[in-house]
Design brief:
DUF6776, 4 helices, coiled coil, DUF6776 family protein, alpha+beta, 8 strands, five-stranded antiparallel β-sheet
Length: about 240
């Protein structure tokens, strides 16, 4: 064998080994990629699963929002119902207090231990109807002559100030009528007499006096402060 061929043989052998090694590396890398890399089908499945999970989360979120809205509405309804209940209870308490006051009034008037009194003004209340008009209601009583009927007429006068000067408005002025007749009353034990009066502009009332003129006998007068009559202060004993 020539010397040149003998020298070329090892080179061919090395090239063959390199080619084999390279091919082995290529096939090995391809195998590893096949093992590690996800198949196209797996990627689609994962994407579909993610989409399903997102839709499920959206549905849960919408359900939770609906539940929160429902609970909020229920809480609002409960609060409104509670306010209405509290208002109803307050009205009932006020009604019961009024009934108790009425019972106490009747017991003092016609009870076995009631103090005997002749014609008198138990109370008067005034409520504004406009800037000038006031509606009054006066409770008249008598239990001295049981069974006897008290008849007569009621009138008012109001004391106060206007422009820094003291004034007393008589019944004609309050009724805005010359020779205005008093309001009739007729009762055995008690009666509530009501009507309207008018105050002039700029007049500041201080005291109201109720005058009862029976058909027979002397007139009866009782005075109340304007604050008592309008409920601005608790009721107190009237001055006669």
């Amino acid at each position: 064998m020539p010397l040149s061929e003998t020298a070329a043989a090892p080179q061919r052998t090395r090239r063959a080994i390199i080619v084999v090694v390279a091919l082995a590396l290529v096939f090995g890398a391809w195998g590893v990629w096949r093992v590690v890399a996800p198949a196209p089908g797996d990627a689609h499945q994962r994407l579909a699963a993610s989409e399903d999970a997102r839709k499920a989360l959206q549905a849960d979120h919408a359900e939770l929002q609906q539940r929160v809205a429902t609970l909020s509405r229920s809480d609002q309804i409960s609060r409104e119902a509670n306010r209405e209940l509290q208002g109803t209870l307050a009205e009932r308490d006020e009604e019961i207090a009024g009934l108790r006051a009425d019972v106490a009034f009747y017991e003092r008037l016609v009870g076995a231990t009631a103090q005997r009194r002749g014609l008198s003004v138990h109370a008067i209340t005034l409520q504004p109807q406009s800037d000038a008009a006031w509606h009054f209601q006066s409770t008249l009583t008598q239990n001295l002559n049981r069974g006897a009927v008290s008849t007569g007429r009621l009138s008012l006068s109001v004391e106060g100030s206007r422009g820094g000067r003291l004034q007393k408005l008589d019944w004609d002025t309050l009724r805005q009528q010359e020779d205005a007749p008093g309001i009739e009353y007729s009762f055995k034990y008690f009666q509530q007499v009501q009507g309207d009066v008018f105050l002039p502009e700029g007049f500041e009332p201080v005291r109201v006096t109720v005058r009862l003129q029976p058909r027979s006998g002397a007139a009866v007068e009782q005075s109340f402060t304007w604050a008592q009559a309008t409920g601005a202060t608790p009721s107190a004993t009237a001055t006669e």
